[in-house]
Amino acid sequence: MFPRLADFGSFELFGRTFHPILHTYGILMFAGFIGGLYVAAKRAPRYGIQPQHIYDLGLYLVIGALVGAKVLLILLDPARFLANPGGFITAGGVFFGGLLGAVGATIWFFRKRGIPIWHGGDLMAPSIALGHGIGRLGCFAAGCCYGIPAEGLPAITFTDVHAHAVTGVPLNVPLHPTQLYEAGLEFALFFFLLWLAPRRRFQGQLFLTWAIVYPVSRFMIEFLRGDPRGFVLDGLLSTSQFVGIWIVAAAVISLLVLRRRTA
Q1: Model pTM score
Q2: Per the CB 3.0–4.6 Å rule, which of 11, 105, 186, 212 could disulfide with 60?
């Protein structure tokens, strides 16, 4: 665990005390976002899309993801939001909410630029996997999204007091490295989608493949998560499992429809 990349210490300026810290989580999240955009822009000409369109899309992705993550967080726990609205401003949000928000922003942007939606989705699919994988390494560094107690390999023990104060990760307890499970999954998906790209049989195949494989894998990883993340149906499913089921259902139906149209 390495939550702080750099600690610049405290200093006073204009009568106020400042203590700037460069957090590893934020740096890796930014690296994942920029890396995903860069890969998509480099691959864009193969899809007949101008690389500049992808860089222009970046701002809309940030706004869509932030809004979607917060909105789903509020919808899933409105009572907690009403009790402490300020806490939701600083909360990270729900990944699938951010994904849905980003997808909505991307669809709007592609329509505006005249880019076929499924075609553009296939271009972005490997970048989604890459960016999310790098971001999960940030989770690992910060200690968030931690796993339940585990024995032996591949258990990992966190020891940083600062990370415990911020994320609540248990210290000196062997835990499943769920962040690394998910990062490994996404990196594997990234390379698989790059391999599948020149072999795709219809537009939408790459994006829908990701939209099926990732939620199914995430569903299983959720059983090893130990952090508080919200549950539905009287605790039967976590928030991510519940939303993932609907995403997979929509993706499977879309995949069958698009494949039938192509045939």
Answers
A1: 0.87
A2: 105
